[in-house]
Amino acid sequence: MESEDLGRKGTEESAAPNAIVNLAEDPKLSGEGVKDPGRSFMSICKSLVAGGVAGGVSRTAVAPLERLKILLQVQNPHYIQYNGTIQGLKYIWRSEGFIGLFKGNGTNCARIIPNSAVKFFTYEQASRFLGSKASKFCGFTGGNPATVATISEDAQLTPVLRLGAGACAGIIGMSSTYPMDMVRGRITVQTDKSPRQYRGMIHALATIYREEGFRSLYRGWLPSVIGVIPYAGLNFGVYESLKDWLIKTNPYGLAEDSELNISTKLACGATAGIAGQTFAYPLDVIRRRMQMVGWKDAGTIVTGQGKSKAPLEYNGMVDAFRKTVQNEGFRALYKGLVPNCVKVCASHHRS
């Protein structure tokens, strides 16, 4: 789900480009004293481009796992082709070749810079706004205008307020580029045997808009937004709690001078990421399935209703949950979880 993109920071010592790209994505930043970047426009642009390149390399490295995850989430239970991580990757390689492992990755990478730019500037404004409101109304400064201005400039927010600013920025950033994610999902699941082929992101956007209408580009948006809250909260809470516990107990000498080493922080980040994504994962499955609704040429790919092999139609998020559990059981809400967890671990260990 967008939670994949809403929290993949590795350590507190990450480079500036990554800090900007992931500023709104990472709830862990809310505990690390990140200041509101008072940088020049050119400096921000350079950082966004550098972060975009780094993010593109990162996403490309785990693209086969990402594609397999989406295929497992939406495949028709009456036409099983992908049955597990290893078998699924082998099947893609055998049936579509090496390039097939990376289908949809170009669109995924194209989202990085515009998505990150929106989140960066939204986070900056949300930090100033929340800092000002907290100073005025929460009694932190007694409403002193000079102090309010100082806090607004430096964005020295409490962890909870910074987490709120990050979640707000993440939701706005995700919404601004959601149509790109929607077509990415469809391009990812189409195969060489699909009746109709999207030739790329622009062609897919134009085709969906022409045949299904503008609203169809935002199918699955609601579960994406809802998923941000539990994911961000759990990711932040598990990371901070695990980090504090390791510093206090210091098992195996992992902490030195009340600080954890890089590898331990990466492990904490991966654990927190897995916990957050596992909890919010059913929303990601529903989001992907809702994105396939209305795609008349995907009957052999997307899930069917009951014993029918016809594409499943949903009237909304709740209806999608109900039909998925009713027709395939509760476990269907966690299809593709294993490759997703492997992807999360790999992403954090490259950070």
From TrEMBL:
<dbReference type="InterPro" id="IPR023395">
    <property type="entry name" value="MCP_dom_sf"/>
</dbReference>
<keyword id="KW-1133">Transmembrane helix</keyword>
<dbReference type="GO" id="GO:0015711">
    <property type="term" value="P:organic anion transport"/>
</dbReference>
<protein>
    <recommendedName>
        <fullName>Mitochondrial carrier protein</fullName>
    </recommendedName>
</protein>
<dbReference type="Pfam" id="PF00153">
    <property type="entry name" value="Mito_carr"/>
</dbReference>
<dbReference type="GO" id="GO:0015748">
    <property type="term" value="P:organophosphate ester transport"/>
</dbReference>
<keyword id="KW-0999">Mitochondrion inner membrane</keyword>
<keyword id="KW-0496">Mitochondrion</keyword>
<feature type="repeat" description="Solcar">
    <location>
        <begin position="157"/>
        <end position="245"/>
    </location>
</feature>
<dbReference type="InterPro" id="IPR002067">
    <property type="entry name" value="MCP"/>
</dbReference>
<keyword id="KW-0813">Transport</keyword>
<feature type="repeat" description="Solcar">
    <location>
        <begin position="42"/>
        <end position="129"/>
    </location>
</feature>
<comment type="similarity">
    <text>Belongs to the mitochondrial carrier (TC 2.A.29) family.</text>
</comment>
<keyword id="KW-0812">Transmembrane</keyword>
<keyword id="KW-0677">Repeat</keyword>
<feature type="repeat" description="Solcar">
    <location>
        <begin position="260"/>
        <end position="351"/>
    </location>
</feature>
<dbReference type="InterPro" id="IPR018108">
    <property type="entry name" value="MCP_transmembrane"/>
</dbReference>
<keyword id="KW-0472">Membrane</keyword>
<dbReference type="GO" id="GO:0055085">
    <property type="term" value="P:transmembrane transport"/>
</dbReference>
<dbReference type="GO" id="GO:0005743">
    <property type="term" value="C:mitochondrial inner membrane"/>
</dbReference>
